Amino acid sequence: MGTPQLTKNQSLVMGALAHSDGPMSAYTILDKLRDHGFRAPLQVYRALDKLLEYGLVHRLESLNAFVACTCPQDHDHEHGVTAFTICEGCGQVTEFHDEAIEQRLSTLVRAQSFKTEKTTIEIRGHCKSCA
Amino acid sequence: MGTPQLTKNQSLVMGALAHSDGPMSAYTILDKLRDHGFRAPLQVYRALDKLLEYGLVHRLESLNAFVACTCPQDHDHEHGVTAFTICEGCGQVTEFHDEAIEQRLSTLVRAQSFKTEKTTIEIRGHCKSCA
DNA sequence: ATCGCCATGTAATGTTATTACATCAATTGC
DNA sequence: GCAATTGATGTAATAACATTACATGGCGAT
Ligand SMILES: [Zn+2]
Ligand SMILES: [Zn+2]
Ligand SMILES: [Zn+2]
Ligand SMILES: [Zn+2]
Which amino acids does the record list as binding Zn(2+) (chains A, B) (predicted)? Predict the structure, then answer.
């Protein structure tokens, strides 16, 4: 089971995010898509829900914003824990993955007998250029 | 330099969070403090800003809510990276710290020449009781 | 007393997200 | 063919979260 065919609205939202150079809020996406017939927030939120489900998009919790996934790999399988650096200067977001962190978190959480459903790792700061 | 004496509003907000059994949104805090003269969101947000600065309170980004810090240690010094498990069932939040994760993240981020200012780690799932 | 600083009070507004309800299209079963 | 189901969509209204702007009050330093 891979990613299903995207609907019209999902494709539009995906396209907007993919062509953006940084994260966008739902309302920013809405504005970008007004020319394509978008009128209400729900059109964006519904599309985002699916795109998040398919793993094509990530939500940045500390920003209330969304980015296209930049994983090199296919999305036929769930990718593990996703982490982000987020530059306060230029808004650049970099997605990365690390097996060691995933393992360590897994160990710590298991020690609490906690069952993980979703892990958020976001690092705010300044990128090389904006230091 | 330790934590300064809290102002009246800061004390009230801190008290509300400390006596709560879980995270509270700013507006929930506001409601709890109406009897003590709170009338507007800003009174809460201003107090929270300071409490966050002093490290007495943490913001849960994935919840838009706030919790009292449960560090055993004093707050005379910054504590390192803070992580949370957040149960979707009962709302229980557990704060924890891990040197290994901190180190590993530090390494990865340095490899990007990124300068960290604040790290968010939040694990949503179900606790032992709510499995 | 005057100034500067910080905490506070209040109102208005801005931003993010959800609920409720109606409609439409494709699919399934009869 | 045609009702029933399912999933996507459209629209409006509202809820939830956060900030801006401006005015006031307390208090220590000069
Ligand atoms: Zn990704
Ligand atoms: Zn930057
Ligand atoms: Zn803490
Ligand atoms: Zn629980």
Answer: 87, 90, 127, 130
Q: Which nucleotides of C are covered by protein (CB under 7 A)?
A: 7-12, 15-20
**Mean pLDDT over all residues of chain A?**
94
> Does any strand D atom come closer than 7 Å to the Cβ of B26?
yes
CA A22, distance to chain mean position in Å, is: 11
* Helix (H) or strand (E) segment spanning residue B122: strand B115-126
A130 domain-assigned: no
Say which CATH number the domain at B114 has.
1.10.10.10
**Phi, psi (5° rounding) for residue B126?**
-130, 135
Is the Cβ atom of A65 within 7 Å of strand C at any atom? Answer: yes
pTM, rounded to two decimals = 0.94
In B 42-101, which Cβ lie closer than 7 Å to strand C? 42-43, 46-47, 50
